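USER:
I wish I could look at a protein chain and see how it folds. I am handing you a single protein, as its sequence and its fold in token form. As I understand it, each token names a local backbone shape. I hope you can help me see how the letters and the tokens relate. The protein I mean follows directly.
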Amino acid sequence: MGRLRGRVHRPGPAAGALGGRVVIPTFHPAYLLRSPSHKKECWADIQLAMAELGLPRPG
């Protein structure tokens, strides 16, 4: 999971099951409960998703 997260994954010509959806992987909430040091990385993923959606970045 660590190698996939941190960037936007866009479907290619053979999108298959994604059906044209953009995917931004992040950590599962249960993992964050066991490894709270990764919360900062998860927050960065959430901000990336917000930017992708055109939402304002929280201060």
Summary: Helices lie at 29-34, 39-53. The radius of gyration is 13 Å. The chain has a mean pLDDT of 87. Residues 34 and 51 are 28 Å apart (CA to CA).
